Amino acid sequence: MNAPFAPIRTLVRLADMRDPDERSAIERFIAAHPQGTPFHLPAWLDAVEHGTGNRALALVAERGGALGGYLPLSEIHSPIFGRLMASTGFAVDGGLLLADGEDGAELLAAAERLATSHSCPTIELRGGPVDDAREGWALRTQSHCGFIAPLANDDEAQLTAIPRKQRAEVRKSLANEFHIDIGTSPEDRAAHYAVYAESVRNLGTPVFPRALFDAVLDRFGDRADILTVRHEGRPVASVLSLYWRGAVMPYWGGGTWDARRLRANDRMYYELMLHARRRGCARFDFGRSKTESGAYHFKRNWGFTPEPLSYAVWTAPGSAKRDADPTSAKHKLQIALWQKLPLALANRVGPWIARGLG
Hints:
Elements: E1 10-14, H1 20-32, H2 42-52, E2 55-63, E3 66-76, E4 84-87, E5 97-98, H3 105-117, E6 122-125, E7 137-140, E8 144-150, H4 155-161, H5 164-174, E9 178-183, H6 186-203, H7 210-220, E10 224-231, E11 234-244, E12 247-255, H8 257-262, H9 264-278, E13 283-290, H10 294-301, E14 306-308, E15 311-315, H11 332-339, H12 343-354
Helix pairs in contact: 2-7, 5-9
């Protein structure tokens, strides 16, 4: 009599991100997965670790030697906001990637054990499938929205695709004497960081370490660049963008106080649309925004339709929920005070705080 068939077990383990073969297998899995994003890539985990000091980790699920699941994680440390496992850190996406037939339960259980062993009472997955009935987990489907739209076939069509009111602002920006720079040189990086740091200070948010931006640019190569708008030789708006599967993703962008008067941000995003199409992109991914925030309505004004994003959060039993939301009432006073800080002081203290935001 034949022995009964023994089902192949799923093995979940920590990936060795220093092993070139392991990294290559993970990169192939991401490339073949329809929900793969640049924020799943080992390059993103590396950049976050190098640029912020937050450790890169990754869990993999294997069945019969084949990769069936992957969960990238950044271990975020903050003396202000507490400890967090984020998938992935400093990203708008991430979360579980599962092959057909995998349910992810063992990966999530392993993530909970890993977080507990690393004294992280919170896990946040920015995308990916999670059963809302799983104990300890809560789904958020209304807190943030994503914005993606196709790019037009030529410059004039791109302009006319913008809704009338916003199109008028872009036309006004086209009448201003701007110079557009695109690249990743030291000059491009310095201009971008100066503009971005001022922009987030004005919003009441600590700026990320410059090392994070440099690390992303260095590791992404031709899949990332900076577009800067200059007026009378001064950078007034700048954006660092990622390129992924035919889409441009303006990721870290902002403008100085003069940018609004000059409509430099309007010009920046329009120029990025044209630049992306010339690079061969077919879609403009405007990223995520807090629902009903100013950025949310700004993107709607450009004609983008908000699509709710699904985030999942695990809180360890007996632990308080982590609150690092800049729009929460708890942080309203701190934001107001931060907006009043001298820029030099904000830029000195901000990166120390921001590396713990995740």
